[in-house]
Amino acid sequence: MSQPRILIIDDEPLMRISIADALKAEGYQVKVAATGSEGVDCIKKEQFNIIISDLRLPGLDGLQVLQTCKEVSARTGVIVITAHGSVETAVEAMKMGAYDYITKPFSMDELLLIVKRLVKMLELEDENRSLREELEGRFSFKGILGKNEKMREVLEKIKLVAPSDSTILIIGESGTGKEVVANAIHHNSSRREGPFIRVSCAALPESLLETELFGHEKGAFTGALRQRKGRFELAHHGTLFLDEIGEISQVVQVKLLRVLQERQFERVGGTSTIEVDVRLVCATQRDLKKEVQSGRFREDLYYRLIVVPVYLPPLRDRKEDVLLLAEHFLEKFGNRMGKRRGTLSEEAKGMVLRYSFPGNVRELENTIERAVTLSNHAGNVEPWDLCGFPSCPYLGGRPQATCGFCSEETHLMAGEIGLRVEDLAAAREQFERQYILKVLEKTQDNKTEAARILGVSRKALWEKCKRYGISKGANG
Ligand SMILES: Nc1ncnc2c1ncn2[C@@H]1O[C@H](COP(=O)(O)OP(=O)(O)OP(=O)(O)O)[C@@H](O)[C@H]1O
Ligand SMILES: [Mg+2]
């Protein structure tokens, strides 16, 4: 940031001018506004790095200005000026995402110090952002992120096969990104200008799926009052994405096989043959090979579909991606909600890395969205933000059956030390004992050092050791 741009909003001319002069003297670019609405106009038209606004303004007040700023330019840092004795509004402003506040009367040096700190922070954020963008650029393809080796192979593969007309079968658990991959394939093919049509084969009963895919003629069945085109026809010159392909019935399997072999079909109840030019991308959570072995899925169709298989590994098998995706979603939802982007604290990182994410990337995405929605602070994202429950057992509160995240975490901790999840008080004691033992081991029984690491006095440690029957050597 060579010359940070600062907007000053204050209705008192003297204040406005003296702040402006002091900032200009430091080399900042400065603009001033005398009312809240004038300030809001500036924010909407121009980009500022920093806004310094009085909270008490005629018309639109400082909080309203702050709100607009967060909406239109989440990256701008806001410093508010409060009157002596109105700390509550200042606290309110901080909750809404202001960077800092300064109370009148103040010296220019004080204000300059806050501005300098803010500039430093914004610069660090910028730096992080460009590093992240570089990282994401290297480990992504059309918004699909992945630095795990298998994922990188997947990205390479779809880059390679997207332009061709090959049929692609995407295989992966729920939430692993099958639909985003299908989308990326379409948008990187020569058919990108054509339609991308998705059909969920699991959502419809057999008869409906057949008419959905192939359409029907007027009078084909009771209720068929008009002729209707099916999805195959609608996808002409484009891509048809058949989601949950493992769910289709034998009848539809036969018809699908024919379209794949001959590129033609008839509408339900019709005799004229329709030809289509459609690229097929299919997805399944099921192991289709097993379905073939058990006779539920036609082998000939299976081989037609599996021309190019794309396996999406579950998130638990690509731990490298967990933090990359988490940071990506933090940025995405932070921007969407106009909140300053936080980052995961070390403890929160540990928590997401240990968690198995049965709902895969979608579950991680939902978790981060909840954290960003619920957190009203601008700093790190903590474990309890991820949980979203005030009495999260992670913090020693009551176990919440509704919170999959924490019950698993508690389960994990309890499992490690062989306890029932419900027994929290005992679990905490057991955990404490194990933890102390671990630290003592690490410090080779040096109690002074162990007490320092644990953040307790030597006496407290001694008492705990006595209580938990820890009687290692008496060194330290
Ligand atoms: N590698 C990735 N990078 C970025 N976002 C991803 C990635 N994988 C998945 N997502 C996001 O996760 C969410 C779930 O992805 P998607 O809907 O494609 O999963 P799916 O495998 O089709 O799930 P389901 O089987 O439940 O339909 C989407 O919001 C998607 O944008
Ligand atoms: Mg899907």
How would you describe the overall organization of this protein?
- 49% of the residues lie in helices and 14% in strands.
- Mean pLDDT is 85; it is low at 388-404 and 407-422.
- It is an alpha/beta fold and 476 residues long.
- The chain has a five-stranded parallel sheet, sandwiched between helices. Strands 9-12-15-8-16 form a five-stranded parallel sheet. Strands 6-7 form a two-stranded antiparallel ribbon.
- The chain binds adenosine-5'-triphosphate (ATP) and magnesium ion.
- Adenosine-5'-triphosphate (ATP) is lined by residues 144-146, 172, 174-180, 285, 325, 361-362, 365.
- Residues 178-179, 243 line the site of magnesium ion (MG).
Which properties best describe this structure?
single chain, 476 residues, alpha/beta, Rossmann fold, Helicase, Ruva Protein, domain 3, 3 domains, 5-stranded parallel beta sheet, 20 helices, 49% helix, binds adenosine-5'-triphosphate, binds magnesium ion
CATH classification, class level of the largest domain: Alpha Beta
Stretches where pLDDT falls below 50 for ≥5 residues?
388-404, 407-422
**Average pLDDT value?**
85
State which percent range the strand residues make up.
Answer: 5-15%
- From the helix content, strand content and strand pairing, which structural class follows? alpha/beta
- Assign the CATH architecture of the largest domain: 3-Layer(aba) Sandwich
> Rough shape?
extended
Radius of gyration: 30 Å
Estimate the helix proportion, in percent.
40-55%
The largest β sheet comes out as: 5 strands, parallel
CATH superfamily membership of the largest domain: P-loop containing nucleotide triphosphate hydrolases
| Distinct helical segment count | 20
- State the CATH topology of the largest domain: Rossmann fold
Distance between the first and last residues' Cα:
51 Å
Small ligands present: adenosine-5'-triphosphate, magnesium ion
* Strand ordering within the main sheet: 2-1-3-4-5
User: How many domains is the backbone divided into?
Assistant: 3
Count of strand segments: 16
